[in-house]
Amino acid sequence: MRIMTYKSTAIINKEGKWFVARSAELGVVSQGRTVEEARKNLEEAVGLYLENTPQNKKILSKIPPIFALIEVNA
Q: What is the pTM of this model?
């Protein structure tokens, strides 16, 4: 079996006492008490997701998502 390497963009936010990490491409979410722990837990969660998802359903793109800062007056 051939091992593939996938790249995903992690978005990490502080929510209360936890850091919540989300894969921008897959929507997989994990958390940790530190940024590093949240990132590491996300890597594990994405790995499990990819292991359990049929090859034709994996949606990681070769083109990374575009992030833009926006301002909203409310």
A: 0.77
